[in-house]
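Lab notebook, page 48
Experiment: co-folding of the full assembly
Goal: obtain a model of how the components sit together before planning crosslinking
Operator: M.T.
Materials (sequences as entered):
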Amino acid sequence: MFLTLIRRELLDNLMTFRFAAAVVIMLLLVVANTVVLIKDYEGRLADYNTAVKTHRQELLERKTYSDGMGKITLDRPPNPLSIFNTGLDKRSGNEINVSHAFTPTIWDAKKHEAENSFFNIFTSIDIVLIFQGILSLLALIFAYNAIAGEYEHGTLRLVLSHPVRRGSILFAKYIGAIVCLFVPLLMSLLLMLILLTTSATISLNTDDFLRIGGIVFTSLIYLSLFYLIGMLISAITRRTSTALILSIFVWGFLVLVYPNLILTAVDTAPQTDTKPATYHQVKQMWEEFERKRKQFLRNDAVPGEDWKLSFYTRFNDQPSRLLYYHYPGGDLETIDEKSEPQVPHAQNYHHYLGMLTVNIAERRWLIRKPVFETIYVQPANKARILLKFSPAGLYDAATEAWTGTDLNGTQDFFRAAQRYRQAVVNYLHDEKIFASRQWFSADQGSVDWNTLPQFSFHRSDIAINAKRAVPDLFLLFMMNILLFIAIFLVFVKSEV
Amino acid sequence: MWHITKRELYNNLNSLRFALTTVLLLALMVTNAVRHTREHSKRVQQYHNAVTESMNRLTAIADDSLYELARQGPGTFYKKPSPLHFCADGGETSLPDRVGSSYDRRRFWRLAYPDANINMMNLGPDVSHIDWTFIIGYILSLIALIFTFDAISGECEHGTLRLTLANAIPRHTVLIGKFLGALISTTIPFMLAMLVNLLILSTSSAVHLNAQAWGRLCIILFIAFLYTCLFLALGLLVSARVQRSAVSLVILLLTWVTFVVFMPSTLASLASGFSSSMARYEYFDRYGQSYHKFRRTWRYAWYQSNDEKMLRTRGEWHTKMAVNEERLNGEYLTFKITQVQRARAITRISPAAFLQHLLEAFAGTGLDRHQQFIENVQRYAREYREFIVDMERGDPESLHIMGVREGMSQKPVSPEAVPKFEDTRNIGKDFNTAAMELLLLTLFVVVLLAGAYLAFVRVEI
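Observation: model returned without errors.
Model output:
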């Protein structure tokens, strides 16, 4: 009996005009957008490759260590799964300088952009957005007459005259609808994968396929949630026309209005123009640096700052990002006989300052980190939490976590950059490079940059993605169960 | 006919959808107004600070000498924030708010067009803020469909249509009556919400709407009205063609989602995805080439002493260099804007994009406004250069060699005499750019209404 009910539901849903129309529209949108998104990804990948090459070239042209310090540039590769959910992948910075003088963060990143920046006035669409908008609508369209329609036609009475429990009727309807909703999801996924395989530059590994599986699973839970919302409305109102209108209002509110409304009402944009209050602390550190430097020079064997060797100072002051540093360096081609006696002193001086710079950079990071957390990360997280009051927000957050384009996933790269910086600093320590002649002079040959530790970045593995997606998934799942219980209670108590 | 309208109206006013609509629109409009009052004063303050700073800089340079005024240029120009920003956001955050004029030790000033400072620091989710474009484009259109989807098919189902037509009423009267009824019942909640919105705005001290702004608001209202008519006509058309109201609503919803929600962005990204993106490198190549050409041609200008001939050559170098670079900057900007305009033209298949363009044009935001701002700046730059030449002619002591310190007037200039930049907007011009779209929108409404009429005439009861 149970199977008969499921079969009936399936046929009822699949053989309808609304199903055909929705599937066709969805497939069209998915194909059009996939083509564009793949092209966009390929463009970004090409940009990334050129950027890596140019940055390497720029580094190799540097002859001394001090000169190369600001020129070690790491590039963030685009995420192939950003096709599913773009998240922060396109928006946040994708190149970062590594230097011993500061700890790199997402806020210090720059962007290499070859694209026409005016195109940013258009909102971008990704696949998850299409699922989120159209499939949820389809779920509601399936659901609105699930109970109310049968009630109106009187078929419900007929079915209940058989010895079936009400719970199994509900469950059969639910299973039937979910299977029906799974069809367009699967079809669009299939088309997407076909399109993805035609592209030569995108290669997905096993982990990526598992992540896509995660996205599909999340989508299913999301859709079932909308189906259950529709069913609940249908069970309560008992009239198809009312149920339909109410469902559409609920859909419009949850998917379209709420995300925009709540973030318009609650201002979560960080105040980027203002100078953080802790800026003077950072400034003080560098005043101390300057004092120590002068003191060192006073106590030095060579009187004054009167170097025959010409040094320059790298300087950076960005109050809004608490970035302030300066350190001396040089790119001398030759050192003449007369200045030769000064070289040991210069080595000593640079060694002392190099150590001091690293030390201050570490101390400043202790100040910068909490400030950034309060100014940027907390508002962003607050906005995300506010969005999660709508299932659409939960779905978006969960899929972002699967693709690795969420804040955490994007930060992974910058954490890797920080680790790499530490490796570089350790290398400088171990090889005593601050105290070496090559720090400021290339007269005995330029630096072999290949001996420097190499940077490599891999996206976090699937277990971490899953761990980040699970809380939102769990919430979605709990909502499903609660709604199902509610529907069951309403349906059981209703008179036929 | 008035009976039918009245009946429709009473039917609608007592329905659930009317109550939901009113609540939803009110919530949206109040949020919009509150946000605008909060943001607008901040925006205006920022603009005024920037302009004052720019003016102070100009005064300081003018006090120095005419030569410095000619070398360092008029500084940065800022786009004046529109008081009607709440009507259309227009992607203002991704458009640049300024045009710079850059100079350095060697080179004279020229206009430079910096990219928008996209907020990379903002790690929050990407949502669009609620403006009238959103409320009218998405919500009001959906509401119009919800009010009309069962106008004919619903009556067909209940059999009341047969009853109505049994009286001696022509069919077009019934259709027009239904149309008017639906129009009035969608307009009432919208008007109510809009009045609350404007009430909040006009009582707050932060926003000042002058007579021109109110005029623009009236036009925007008219556009909203036309746009609602479009969707009402569409609803009636589908409702007349389809026998069952549920099917009619499903068709309408799918059409709406495709055309209003997904079509604009999909078409825009299609257009942007297939436009050439190599322009930037090309631009830098051309920039570098022209610079080297200049270096080769004028290399000897730097060798010699300060005799008059050399000064003239050097002056020529400076002047031509600035003109050339400004031309290149301008060409690159034009190229980029043309690309975007093309993409925008393609999105016009969707009525929501139509509405957005129209509202942006009259609210004074968005890309068209940005172009107008750039034109204003370019006109001012010409004026400024003419002013320098005029002042130079007026100084009998100078050698009248533009572009070098030794050849130009060293006298300070009174800051009041320097022309001031004004970022003006002209409602007539806005109307001209929007006239075509307005006409098309009207045409769409007429076509859809005619379609609805034809469909209704053929309905068998």
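Interpretation: DSSP finds 14 helices and four strands in chain A.
Next step: discuss with group before ordering constructs.
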